[in-house]
From TrEMBL:
Domain Acetyl-CoA hydrolase/transferase N-terminal: 11-221
Taxonomy of the source species: Bacteria, Bacillati, Actinomycetota, Actinomycetes, Propionibacteriales
Protein name in the entry: Acetyl-CoA hydrolase/transferase family protein
Gene Ontology molecular function terms on file: hydrolase activity
Homology family: Belongs to the acetyl-CoA hydrolase/transferase family.
Entry keyword set: Hydrolase
Organism annotation: Nocardioides yefusunii
């Protein structure tokens, strides 16, 4: 048996994943670890999927509700969706097989803000949690758990579940002990107290997860890497977006609105966010801090070259190469980064107090500054809102980033009216595309439209957007706050659905 399991009570519960999966019944609500591909259970999901397939072959229904920290990996969402073993799923999810199952109507997907997901479970909004399946790096003699490459909602799932299954993965560095800060004083209203975190590098909790040993029904030993998609090579559009962001931050420092080492940064998931981090790395900025959700490869680069002095997150989101590099050099990062529960990494109180600079990707923005982060053409789920709402609403300064077109130019990401709104014009401050940056602070919607079109829209769509605003202004002279042509506002999206492009055919 692995020397990672040094608690005798739990040593007696070691069994195979197949045996452990028999503790999960059809209809159960299951909370799993995992935030991006980091820290997901590696064997239980496949064993549950096999169990579901066996039930289905006999003509029996077998589906579970699955709650996680955020997106997982093909070995969690992928195998379970493939086996038609999912009923309800929350929160953020980016696996393509699951996305198809959500969009075909097979899986009911709930998309709360990540900072809400744990507290809604505590409030009883989602009902009882039957089983928690949590990956850890080691179990101490007294049963405390050394977390692995993400914390996510693990604390809540361990506390709330009736039964607990622990996967101990010896691929995860044993040296992870000391890299986590789990805060246990999150009482429920009306007993809540201020969270005593005033600096990014402050530790307010303990480095372990606790579990009630009596609830543990199985311990499974695994040896498998985290699985994350590689990042796309940084292209010209992403580089340009990164340069606009860095220039803008210089401008903010020069204007005296933030110190030379900036305010703590939050950077979203995806290719564009990773490219912006590269832009910061190539700049003169250094000694920065990050208070964010996910540490992507770009963050490791910044920690390595001193651009970043300290990073707080809830998870890694490293490519295979990035994970190899981190696991090899882990001691280099000790004291320079910490992983916290997502109810703390994404906590509105802390985001507001620390004064974060928040940069997230988007699907589209409209000319008035409403941002859609989640839905393609108004209806098809992409990934979910993730933490973008937690960070945007409470940021000191927020920015939304995207190339100005998608799908080879057939889609303008700047549109007359967003086909779904995740972040309203009341929240959104800055929009950035490779064309330029629109600073919307202090502008009324009508003034915003000119700046967004002028600075951010692709030349192929600029004239049509201007024409739209001008006609909207003429059509209803008593409705000039946010001028719209209601019968035309979503016609660009309809044209794409009908013809495969938003461009008007000659
Ligand atoms: O499609 O993968 O088929 O090529 O969307 O687009 O430009 O590579 O951008 O990787 O930064 O993702 C909003 C999805 C952007 C992400 C989103 C298509 C495009 C491509 C990806 P392909 P890019 P990114 C905290 C922050 C919500 C959660 C969040 C996201 C694919 O940033 O999930 O912010 N955000 N969390 O072609 C149709 C459009 C499109 C479009 C892009 N207008 N219409 N398709 N695409 N724009 C972290 C967490 O919460 C975990």
């Amino acid at each position: 048996m692995s020397e990672r399991i040094s608690c005798s009570v739990l040593q007696n519960k070691v069994m195979s994943a197949e045996q452990a999966a028999t503790f999960i019944q059809a209809g159960d609500r299951v909370g799993m670890s995992g935030f991006t591909g980091a820290g997901c259970p590696k064997e239980l999901p496949t064993a549950i999927a096999e169990r579901a397939k066996a039930h289905h072959a006999r003509g029996d229904e077998f589906r579970i509700d699955l709650w996680t920290g955020a997106s997982t990996s093909p070995v969690v969402d992928g195998v379970l969706a493939e086996a038609h073993a999912l009923n309800r799923r929350l929160p953020y999810a980016s696996d393509p097989t699951l996305r198809r199952a959500i969009n075909s109507g097979e899986v009911d997907y709930l998309d709360p803000h990540l900072s809400h997901s744990a507290q809604h479970m505590w409030f009883g909004f989602y009902g009882n949690l039957d089983v928690a399946v949590i990956e850890v790096a080691a179990i101490l003699p007294d049963g405390r758990l050394v977390p692995s490459s993400s914390v996510g909602n693990n604390k809540t799932w361990l506390d709330q579940a009736d039964k607990v299954i622990i996967e101990v993965n010896d691929w995860q560095p044993r040296a992870f002990e000391g890299f986590h800060d789990v805060y246990y004083k999150t009482a429920l209203p009306p007993h809540r107290q201020p969270i005593p975190l005033t600096q990014v590098d402050q530790l307010i909790g303990e480095p372990y997860l606790r579990v009630d040993l009596d609830k543990v029904v199985a311990v499974v030993e695994t040896h498998a890497p985290d699985r994350n998609s590689p990042f796309a090579p940084i292209d010209a559009a992403s580089t340009a977006i990164g340069e606009h962001v860095v220039d803008f931050l210089r401008h903010e420092v020069a204007a005296g609105r933030m110190p030379a080492s900036l305010l703590p940064i939050q950077s979203g998931v995806g290719n564009v966010a990773n490219a912006v981090l590269a832009g910061l790395g190539n700049s003169e900025f250094n000694g920065l801090s990050a208070y964010t959700e996910v540490l992507q490869d770009g963050m490791l680069d910044l920690l390595d070259d001193g651009t970043l002095a300290f990073a707080s997150a809830t998870s890694f989101g490293l490519s295979d190469l990035g994970a190899e590099r981190f696991n090899r050099d882990i001691e280099k990062y000790r004291g320079k980064l910490v992983l916290r529960a997502e109810e703390i990494s994404n906590h509105p109180e802390l985001i507001r107090r620390l004064g974060l600079i928040c940069m997230n990707g988007m699907i589209e923005a409209d000319i008035y500054g409403h941002v859609n982060s989640t839905h393609v053409m108004g209806s098809q789920m992409m990934n979910g809102i993730g933490g973008s709402g937690d960070f945007t609403r409470n940021a000191f300064l927020n920015m939304f980033l995207s190339p100005s077109t998608a799908k080879n130019g057939s889609i303008s990401t700047i549109v007359p009216m967003a086909s779904h709104v995740d972040h309203t014009e009341h929240d959104v401050m800055v929009i950035v595309t490779e064309q330029g940056l629109a600073d919307l602070r202090g502008l009324s919607p009508r003034r915003r439209a000119r700046v967004v079109i002028e600075n951010c829209a692709h030349p192929d769509y600029k004239d049509a957007l201007l024409d739209y605003v001008e006609r909207a202004e003429k059509a209803r002279p008593n409705a000039l706050h946010t001028p719209h042509l209601l019968d035309e506002a979503l016609s660009w999206h309809q044209r794409f659905v009908d013809t495969g492009t938003m461009q008007k055919q000659a």
